[in-house]
Amino acid sequence: MKFFILLVLLLVTSIIHMITGGSAAHRCFCQVTGTLDDCACDVETIDKFNNRDVFPKLQKLLASDYFRFYKVNLNNPCPFWTDHSQCGLKYCAVKPCTPSEVPEGLKSSSYKYTAEASQEIEECEMAEKLGAVNSSLSDETRQALQEWKKHDDDSDRFCMLDDEDSPDSQYVDLLLNPERFTGYKGPEAWRIWNSIYEENCFKPYSVKRPLNPLVFNSGDIDGQGFYHWLEGLCVEKRAFFRLISGLHASINVHLSARYLLDENWFEMKWGHNVSEFQVRFDEELTKGEGPKRLRNLYFLYLIELRALAKVLPYFEFSSFHLYTGQPAQDFENKKLLLELLHVAKSFPLHFDETTLFAGNNKEAMKLKEDFKLTFKNISRIMDCVECFKCRLWGKLQTQGLGTALKILFSERQIEAMPNTSKTNPSFQLSRQEIVSLFNAFGRISTSVRELKNFRSLLSKSDSD
Ligand SMILES: *[C@@H]1O[C@H](CO)[C@@H](O)[C@H](O)[C@H]1NC(C)=O
Ligand SMILES: *[C@@H]1O[C@H](CO)[C@@H](O)[C@H](O)[C@H]1NC(C)=O
Ligand SMILES: *[C@@H]1O[C@H](CO)[C@@H](O)[C@H](O)[C@H]1NC(C)=O
Ligand SMILES: *[C@@H]1O[C@H](CO)[C@@H](O)[C@H](O)[C@H]1NC(C)=O
User: What percent of the chain has pLDDT over 70?
Assistant: First the structure.
C-alpha cells in the first residue's frame, strides 16, 4: 500500500514536471546525481565528503603563509597569436579611455554609435579594473620569501620549472586576489577555451564546435553533438577532455558565485548571481551541456583527490618541511596537511586503480608523454589570457592539475619512497608545484561547496 502511494506520488510529480517543464533547480541538477561515468562513484557521496571533511580543513591550510604566496610569471608573451582585441588590456592601460575623450565629431554623428562606443569603453575599463592583479607585498613578506627561496634551493631539487626562475616571475598573494567575476568575456575569452578544446584535447579535427560556447548547433539531431567523438577515445584521453571541461566549469561556478552585483563609490558588493549560473549550466539554456559540465567538475574533483591520496607517502616519509621560517607554525601546518591527506585517502570510492594511468608498458609511456606535451601547451595558452587575474588563476589551476597528473603517473616511485634513499628521492615536488596542487584543489572543492548554495538558491527561486 505504501509502495502504491509512493508510485502515485511519483507519477503525479512527473506529470507536473512535464507540464511545467521542470523547475529551475531540477534543470541544472537533474543529471548531476548518481554514479559518474568511468568510475564507481556518486555525486552525493562526494558532496557530503567534500563539504564536511575536506572543505573546512583545506580552507584553513590555504590561508596559511606557505600556501598563499604563489610565484608566477604573468608577463610571458602569448606564443600563438598577436591580439587585436579592442579591449586589450595593453590599450586600456596605456590610454585610459573615458567617454569624454571620444571625439566630439563621433559623438554627434551618430547617437547610437556613441552610446555603443561609450558602453564598450565602460566595459573595457571595468574589465581592466577587475582583472588587475594586486601584487603588493609588504617588505617583511618580501624578505621572508627570499629566505624561503634560499631554503628551497639548498634542498636539492632536481627539476626546475622554467617559469619560476625567470626574472619576470613574481610572488602574488592569492588571498588578495580571489578568483571571481572580472568582466573578461566575449570573443577573446572564447578563443582561449576554443584553442584548448579544439587543438589540445585529442579531438579529431572533423568535429566542429561553435566559437561561442553559449550557442549550440541546432543541427544536432542526436542530442549528443559535440560529445559524440569522445566515445572513440581511450579512457585516458576521454579523461583528459573531461578534466579540462571540469576546470572550465569550476571557473564558471566561481564567476557566478562571486559576481559583482553592485558597486558604488565606497564599496563593491559580490555575491551569487543565479541567472549567470543558469546561463552556463541550465540544461535547457545550454542544450544539455550544462549538467555534463557539472559532472566533469566532479570528475576533476575525484582525479585531484586521488592524487592527494597517492602523494601521502611523499609528505609522510620525506624530511619535507612546509618551510616559512616559523617553526611552530610550520609544524602545525605540516600536521594539518597530513591530516588532510589522510582524509583524502579515506575516501571510500576512489578510482579503480587499474583503469587509469596505471600501465607500465610502452603505450602508457607514450600516453604520459602526450599528456605532458599537451599540458605544457595548455599552460602556454594561459599566457594568451588578457585578463591578468584570469591568467593568474588559469596558470595556477593548470599547474595544479599538471602536478596531480604527475603524481598519478609516478605512483610506483612514490609507493617505493619509504624504502628509497632520502637524499636522492626519485620523486620530488617543488614548492610551486605543491602550492598550485593544493590551491587548485581548493578551487574545485570550493566549487563543489558552491553547488550546494546554488542548489538551494535555485529551489528558493522555484518556490517564489
Ligand atoms: C592591494 O592590497 C593591499 C592590501 O590589502 C591594499 O592596501 C591595496 O590598496 C591594494 N591595491 C590595489 C591596487 O587594489
Ligand atoms: C599548442 O596549442 C596551439 C594553440 O591552440 C596549437 O596551434 C598547437 O598545435 C598546439 N601544439 C601542440 C604540440 O599541441
Ligand atoms: C546576473 O547575470 C546576468 C547575466 O547572466 C546579468 O544580466 C545580470 O545583470 C546579473 N545580475 C546582477 C545583479 O548583476
Ligand atoms: C620496503 O621494505 C620493507 C622491508 O625491507 C618491505 O617489507 C616492504 O614491502 C617494502 N615496501 C615497498 C613499497 O617496497
Answer: 69
Shortest-distance Cα residue to atom 8 of ligand 2: 199
pLDDT tens for each residue of 415-453: 877 776 666 667 888 888 999 999 999 999 999 999 999
d(CA 303, CA 310): 11
Secondary structure element (H or E) that encloses residue 133, with its range: none
- Residue 134: pLDDT above 90? no
Residues 255 and 277: their CA atoms lie apart, in Å, by 9
pTM reported for the whole predicted model: 0.81
3 state SS of 171: strand
| C-alpha span between 37 and 348 (Å, rounded) | 17
User: What's the alpha-carbon Rg for the chain, to the nearest Å?
Assistant: 24
Query: Could you tell me the three cell numbers for 443?
Result: 578551487
The reply to whether ligand 3 has any atom less than 6 angstroms from the CB of 9 is no
Quick one: which of 447, 110, 409, 129 has its CA closest to 298?
447
DSSP string, 236-280: HHHHHHHHHHHHHHHHHHHHHHTEEEEE-SS-EEEE--HHHHHHH
pLDDT tens, position by position, 16-52: 343 344 566 666 665 666 666 656 678 888 999 999 9
Question: What are the boundaries of each domain within the chain?
Answer: 33-463
Average pLDDT over residues 352-381: 74
Q: Where are the alpha helices (DSSP H) in 382-463?
A: 388-409, 411-415, 431-463
Is the CB–ligand 2 distance for residue 373 below 6 Å?
Answer: yes
Ligand 4 touching residue 415 (CB < 6 A): yes
Look at the chain and count its residues.
464
Q: What is the pLDDT of residues 173-205, one digit of tens each?
A: 998 888 888 777 767 777 788 788 777 777 666
Set of cell numbers at residue 71: 610565484
Phi and psi, residue 449, nearest 5°: -65, -40
Which residue CA neighbors atom 6 of ligand 4 most closely?
419
d(CA 294, CA 31): 9
Cβ of 276 closer than 6 Å to ligand 3, yes or no, is yes
For residue 103, report the phi and psi dihedrals to the nearest 5 degrees: -55, 140
